[in-house]
Amino acid sequence: MKSNDSNFIQRLKRQKEDALEFIVDTYLPLIKGVAHKVLAPLNNIGVIDECINDVFLSVWNNAEKFNGDSNDFKKWICAIAKFKAIDYLRKASKEMEFASEHMELNAEKSAEDELIMLENRAELIEMINGLEPVERDIFIMKFFLGFKTEDISAKLGLTRASIENRIYRGKKKLSKSLTNINMLGENGT
Amino acid sequence: MTDIYGLLNKSNVDPDEFEEIDATEFEKAKVKNALKQSIGKKKKRTGWKTNVAAASVMLCLSAAALGSAFPTYASGIPVIGDIFKYLDIGNTGMYDNYKEHSSALNLSKESSGVKVTINDVIYDRHTVSMTFTLESDQDLGENPTAQGTPKLEGSEATAALSTISKVGENRYVGLYQATSITGGIGDTVNITWNLGSINPTDEQKEIQGDWEFAFAANATDTHTLVSGQSAEQDGVMVGIEKITITPMSFIVYYTQAVSELLRNQGQGVYIDLQIKDDLGNVYTGQDNGGVGRDSSNISRCKSFGKLDPNASKLIVTPRVLNSFNIGEVAEDEPKDVPLLPKFTKSVDFVLDDIVIELDK
């Protein structure tokens, strides 16, 4: 039995390796495109290759979390690629200071941003789950997918001011919850 | 609660915003291999119960394997789905349609720590192409070579081409193409192949072993067009004898003749064919070698990729490559030997195009 366009999602969820091969055959050009676009400033082909492998491995390991058909799958794998690439860029930029076209890294870095860039994002994810749907979308786009504020504004049909306002409020909520968690953590040890 | 992968389900990322970048079969295979290694490592950590279960299955399997005679038929082992395309390193597209028309053999033989599996075979009445996999218990370097040549029953002379490439740790894939340059084989060809020894790339000793295979291959559908057209210029003549069209390729048989005058001047002339069709497709080819009574009159043949079924004409440009070198004429040779000014060192030229009508 081989994977094809209509059964690969099901086979992927059942952890059939041929589904992974099918996905590599079908989506490598797209994932390569995303990784090269985001990570081009690093000028490091090794990082790009590592990122590409990481995308497919994450898809394999998290297949059960995907919902939808093959069109949705393309969007999903593309979003994971963008997320991973931004993540690699962020990690690399921690090591060396450089300006990136894809992220407003240094421009408006605040205490909340620092929290968001925590290595361990479990708490952050939990907070995001507790946000209103629109705020949740904005946060994911802003902090995981590296969208610029104006891009988010165009996608969601909201004004720039409205988005900045929601980010501000969201950050406050997050900051509050994260501080609580951090304090709990400190008390616990 | 859902994690980032769950949250990304309804994200606003639009795949059309990104320009796809073509990936070669080689790149795809590299990613797949890296993934399989990561997955493999993960699976190993799943606990002792699975291991015990796997071990008992292995025991049953090896008992079954011992009971059956070699060579065994292995299945599902090759990591690379399409070795033909994988080994098309320049991505010429010449072998794109080979896999679908080939027959899966999956014949394995293990000797001296190297397991050789012949994966696919395809025969176009002229050339037998075989893909194979080597799995070794030691590293064989980047491009090892195999000694033995496949023998085609009924062929008086065989030209062979082979390539072996590393795909993973101690794992290699290869393509062997054996062409009967004298023809003489029919619908079915019997092939015997004893690899004899494998030579690793690095300074390791060659590995002697017994990897002997015997199998048969049936010819794919072929359709032959007799041409008889030719082109001539400056003492070089090329004649297209016939074209054989198969589902995955076409093969052009041609003769090259060189005038006596030129022959007396120096050594080899080699005529290569460049082919495009009336739709603008350019075909990449593989020279299969040639045979001749003497160096002036040689029958050659060259295989190309799949012919576009909508093409109605083939435009053949014969390119004359020669190794004439005026500088090599010794001083004391008679001065009256006419030297053709066209033939200077490393000069080549093209003959007039030969246009072949493809019947529909």
Word description of this protein:
- The complex is a heterodimer of chains A (189) and B (360).
- Helices cover 71% and strands 0% of the residues of chain A.
- With 189 residues, chain A is an all-alpha fold.
- In chain A, helix 2 (17-39) packs across helix 3.
- The model of chain A is unreliable at 97-111 and 184-189 (pLDDT under 50).
- In chain B, a hairpin with a 3-residue loop joins strand 3 (114-123) and strand 4 (127-136).
- Helix content of chain B is 16%, strand content 41%.
- Chain B has a six-stranded antiparallel β-sheet with strand order 1-2-3-4-8-7.
- Chain B starts with a helix and ends with a strand.
- Chain B has helices at 4-7, 25-44, 48-67, 83-86, 98-101, 260-265, and strands spanning 72-73, 103-111, 114-123, 127-136, 145-146, 151-152, 158-168, 171-180, 188-194, 197-199, 207-208, 212-218, 223-226, 230-233, 236-245, 250-258, 269-277, 282-283, 285-294, 297-304, 313-322, 348-350, 354-357.
- Chain B has 360 residues and is α+β, with helices and mostly antiparallel strands.
- Classes of the chains: A mainly alpha (189), B alpha+beta (360).
- Chains A and B meet through helix 2, helix 3, helix 4, helix 6 and helix 7 of A and helix 1 and helix 2 of B.
Write the layout of secondary structure elements.
The complex is a heterodimer of chains A (189) and B (360).
Chain A: H1 8-13, H2 17-39, H3 45-61, H4 70-95, H5 111-116, H6 122-129, H7 133-144, H8 149-156, H9 160-188
Chain B: H1 4-7, H2 25-44, H3 48-67, E1 72-73, H4 83-86, H5 98-101, E2 103-111, E3 114-123, E4 127-136, E5 145-146, E6 151-152, E7 158-168, E8 171-180, E9 188-194, E10 197-199, E11 207-208, E12 212-218, E13 223-226, E14 230-233, E15 236-245, E16 250-258, H6 260-265, E17 269-277, E18 282-283, E19 285-294, E20 297-304, E21 313-322, E22 348-350, E23 354-357
Antiparallel strand pairs in B: 1-2, 2-3, 3-4, 4-8, 5-10, 6-9, 7-8, 9-12, 10-11, 13-15, 14-15, 15-16, 16-20, 17-18, 17-21, 19-20, 21-22, 21-23
